[in-house]
Design a protein that fits this description.
alpha+beta; about 30% helix; four-stranded antiparallel β-sheet; Dipeptide-binding Protein, domain 3; Dipeptide-binding Protein, domain 1
């Protein structure tokens, strides 16, 4: 197991599809730039444009990366993960009994909530339970837990009912749903109840400035003066989270050219996801650094809703899979082949578990339209429209549905492509209503490779259905049984063999469609230094020159 987590990965990344950004959003973001231009340069404030605006504030109820990134600003985690995929102490140190059945977590001293008071083990227990109820890996861990309790003010004791080797790795993983520790009164809320602005109380390195929050447009964080960082060097989400600025402001600019202009002129300091088309302009500016901080890359994917026609039928899902073409999708998403690669593996093509098991020959380069049409006819497709959600304001997820809709139509599907902003999609994808009543049939998103590299951490390979699965909700007892076998495997060889069987099964059932890998740089003003290379964009350890 350790050798798997210790391996490194890489891949490639993204582009803006011409005409996707809405004109109304351009006028809005131009107004934001005008406001920024009037602001004086400030060495105590970092102004950043992230990949999306922030609307959903609960990192347990959604796997949206922008919400996870927000979580790391204000909440801390019991464990962190370093750049060698190794769990490390963060809020807590730990010990394990000789038989591997009891894990004791001891909170370090100096942990305080933003609104006052000490962090206690009761807070950690409530946070663990809320996380484990929602996260796919946490759910599997919970199947092996006999009890988790606060045995004193600073000690959380987790006792297993049966052996489980991935306790620390799942509690430390940086995505897609991290184990953020919240006050007990907040963490005690059901994971089906989304946290509000008033609930944004953590013990992390930044505080949330509620009265400056403009949903989807602007969010502000201030340094938490009472935060005590660990002494170890920062590495991914582990180590010392030292804050060297007073404020961080996230300003949403959905138009790529507007964001580029703002960075070039010094009106913002950091641009997480510049358009690949515009990278040469940024690289030509000697005052900017253009560099990959997420060296592992991402996988882009398509996801069906298993609850309603037409994709409740596996034969129709297989027809849709056969119609897909990674090359077309990636070319529209990224444009420059330097930043993307086709990949048949659900685990990422440069990971220890990489495999082509079960993948159709046509997935990478296309050519399956005729076969898909024949499969669709044989399945008795009755023309039920595919309600496909298309975000218009997030360049990393806007092109995929446009291309996929074309490919499905060529195969004979009726497609209802419905435009919306990304945060509306993030909210709507949680709906289990029928597609004609506010629900959906298909959407697209992206995962960092560390979020999918094995079947325990991947939210996509979860067969727990409508009550416990990730959006789309496949009910697949066979998949769950194989994941359980993976968790119990005692050697890397056995794990790899089981992972291959899981992927073959997932392609047969079309649990999801992997559409290739991509990776592009972020860009920032040379006044910033100390930016960490990490699958999570973090704002601690960054200094800004006067």
């Amino acid at each position: 197991m350790t050798t798997l987590f210790s391996r490194r990965f890489s891949a490639t990344r993204r582009r803006l599809l011409g005409g996707v950004a809405a004109a109304t959003l351009l006028s809005t973001t131009c107004g934001a730039v005008s406001t920024l231009a009037a602001m004086p340069a400030d060495a105590s404030t970092i102004r950043a444009v992230m990949h999306s605006g922030l609307r959903v504030l609960d990192p347990i109820t959604t796997t949206a990366h922008i919400t996870r990134d927000h979580g790391y600003m204000i909440w801390d985690t019991l464990l962190g993960m370093d750049d060698q995929f190794q769990p490390q102490p963060q809020m807590a140190d730990w010990s394990v009994s000789d038989d591997g059945m009891v894990y004791t977590f001891t909170l370090r001293e100096g942990l305080e909530w933003h609104d006052g008071g000490q962090v206690t083990a009761a807070d950690a227990v409530a946070s663990f339970r809320r996380w484990a109820d929602r996260d796919g890996g946490g759910q599997m861990l919970l199947d092996h837990v006999d009890s988790v309790e606060a045995t004193d003010e600073r000690t959380m004791t987790l006792t297993l009912s049966s052996p489980f080797a991935y306790v620390l790795e799942l509690m430390a993983k940086p995505s897609s749903v991290p184990l953020f520790v919240m006050p007990e009164r907040i963490a005690s809320k059901s994971p089906d109840e989304t946290l509000t602005v008033e609930d944004q109380i953590g013990s992390g390195p930044f505080t949330f400035v509620a009265d400056e929050y403009d949903p989807g447009n602007r969010v502000v964080y201030e340094k938490f003066a009472d935060y005590v960082p660990r002494e170890e060097p920062a590495s991914w989400t582990a180590g010392g989270k030292v804050v060297d600025v007073d404020r961080v402001e996230w300003i949403n600019m959905s138009d790529a050219q507007t964001a580029l202009n703002a960075l070039n002129s010094g009106e913002i300091d950091f641009l997480e996801s510049p358009s690949v088309d515009l990278l040469p302009v940024l690289q030509a500016n000697p005052d900017l650094t253009v560099e990959k901080i997420n060296e592992l890359g991402s996988q882009t994917i398509g996801r069906f809703n298993f609850l309603y026609p037409p994709f409740d039928d596996p034969e129709i899902r297989r027809a849709a899979l056969t119609a897909m073409n990674q090359t077309d999708v990636l070319a529209s998403l990224i444009g420059n082949p330097e930043f993307y690669t086709t990949c048949d593996s659900m685990y990422g093509c440069q990971t220890p578990l990489a495999t082509e098991a079960g993948a159709p020959e046509t997935l990478a380069t296309g050519g399956g339209t005729e076969a898909a049409s024949e499969m669709l006819e044989a399945a008795g497709y009755d023309g039920t429209p595919v309600v496909m959600m298309q975000p218009t304001d997030a360049p990393t997820v806007s092109p995929q549905p446009v291309i996929a809709a074309q490919l499905l139509r060529q195969a004979g599907f009726q497609v209802d492509l419905q435009p919306m902003d990304w945060q509306t999609l993030v909210t709507r994808r949680a709906s289990q209503q029928p597609p004609g009543e506010g629900g959906w049939n298909m959407f697209f998103t992206n995962w960092y490779i560390p979020e999918v590299w094995n079947p325990l951490v991947s939210p996509m390979l979860n067969g727990r259905g409508a009550d416990g699965g990730w959006f789309g909700w496949p009910d697949d007892a066979e998949l769950e049984s194989m994941r359980e076998a993976f968790a119990k495997a005692e050697s890397d060889e056995d794990r790899k063999a089981i992972a291959e069987r899981i992927q073959a099964h997932a392609f047969e059932q079309v649990t999801y469609i992997p559409l290739g890998e991509y990776s592009i740089p972020a860009a920032w003003n040379n006044d910033l230094s100390g930016i960490l290379h990490s699958p999570v964009p973090v704002f601690w350890n960054i200094t800004k020159a006067e």
